[in-house]
Amino acid sequence: MKCPDNMPKKKAPMNRSLSLIKGDTLKYAERLIVLKKKAVVIEIIDKTINQDLFQVIPLLPDNFIDLLFIDPPYNLRKNFNNKLFREKSINEYAEWIESFIEPMLRCLKPNASVYVCGDWKSSTSLHLVLSKYFIVKNRITWERDKGRGSHTNWKNNTEDIWFCTRNRDYTFNPESVKLKRKVLAPYRDNNGEPKDWKNSENGAFRLTHASNIWNDISIPFWSMPENTDHPTQKPEKLLAKIILASSNNGDIVFDPFLGSGTTSVVAKKLGRRFVGVELDKSYACITEKRLELAENDGSIQGFYEGVFWERNSNPKRRV
Ligand SMILES: C[S@@+](CC[C@H](N)C(=O)[O-])C[C@H]1O[C@@H](n2cnc3c(N)ncnc32)[C@H](O)[C@@H]1O
Fold first, then answer.
1. Which residues does a 6 A CB cutoff place in the pocket of ligand 1?
2. Model confidence over 130-139: pLDDT tens digits?
3. What pairs with residue 181 in β-bridges?
4. How many other β-carbons are positioned within 10 Å of the β-carbon of residue 257?
5. What is the pLDDT averaged over residues 98-127?
6. Which of 106, 132, 197, 208 is the most buried (most CB within 10 A)?
């Protein structure tokens, strides 16, 4: 975190970001757990494990994960609250990824789905490792609307999300993740009826099946209430697509690099169970704060009336 909880930063009026305030660390740290011996599911369900993943893996139960979402440090130099992750060669990064994927296999149910995030530099290593252990079903390209400008290279504006399954029998709910898209050319058939689109007070739209290019999701920014100080926070809308498509009510979603808690928070909002692991105490505490807020606010920006809205298109301003 950029700011310890006893030194609140002065916020701009439109800044709705969530941070820890005085007393929060003490309050939320009490809800975190640390594993000392092999756990059973009931001990870890709906909990945040505040510990090094490599210590945690041998203590996790067998066969409990329906959906595994992995958002590891990407293969670049990045500072997570004074813990530095260093860029590695393609092979070294692949070895590092494999060092937690392989021992986690026993924790997956046979019909589990697995999503792994990376940028273009991480993806070669990810593909090599994932194809060794899973059926690689797809690589989703997420076009973020924000990227760092550069005078010497193309702006880095996309991330990859690899979608894998353990076998050919797995959950996939395409109807739950339809995109509400504006229709630019509203053709009609010979009877004058709309061809595959509907009219609304906001113009013609069509509900389409989601493709492997996601360009309707912005990274959290400071005027969004889901935003925190975490440097690489994933948007709730992105997790909502993955959780709705690849799990059912009551399923267990596991995130071994939980960060600010997006996966657990969205799992809770969508009626799933969750378990997350995060090394850093401040990030784990902000997760608990977000989980508490989710008890009274189940909204997910950009997901409204059961559909995903194109960027900046929702009349209720929830995108
Ligand atoms: C890319 S971030 C995940 C961000 C998260 N998806 C979110 O929405 O906030 C990776 C996280 O993994 C944590 N991490 C790194 N190494 C870890 C380890 N060995 N065990 C547990 N957590 C670790 C970092 O502190 C960081 O918060």
1. 52-54, 71, 73, 80, 230, 232-234, 257, 259-260, 262, 277-280, 283
2. 999 999 999 9
3. 206
4. 20
5. 97
6. 197
User: Residue 53 CA: which ligand 1 atom is closest?
Assistant: 20
Token couple for 77: 């130099």
The answer to whether the CB of 31 falls within 8 A of the CB of 48 is yes
pTM (2 d.p.): 0.93
Question: From atom 26 of ligand 1, which residue's Cα is the shortest distance away?
Answer: 259
- Residue type at position 202: N
Output the CA 58–ligand 1 centroid distance in Å.
Answer: 18
Taking the C-alpha atoms of residue 16 and residue 122, their distance in angstroms, rounded to an integer, is 32
pLDDT of 316 reads 59
Please write the tens of the pLDDT for every residue from 225-256.
Answer: 999 999 999 999 999 999 999 999 999 999 99
Q: What are the residue ranges of helices labelled H in the chain?
A: 24-29, 41-44, 53-56, 90-104, 120-133, 236-246, 262-269, 281-294
Residue 288's nearest CA partner among 83, 33, 17, 11 is: 33
Distance 175 CA to ligand 1 centre (A): 31
Domain ranges of the chain: 24-172+228-299
CA–CA dist 263, 86 (Å, integer) = 24
Tokens of 38: 């092999």
Ligand 1, atom 2, lies closest to the CA of 259
Residues 293-309: what's their mean pLDDT? Answer: 94
| Cβ–Cβ under 8 Å, residues 282 and 261 | no
CATH no. of 24-172+228-299: 3.40.50.150
Token pair for 312 = 């900046």
pLDDT range class, residue 314, cuts 50, 70, 90 = low
Average pLDDT over residues 285-290: 98
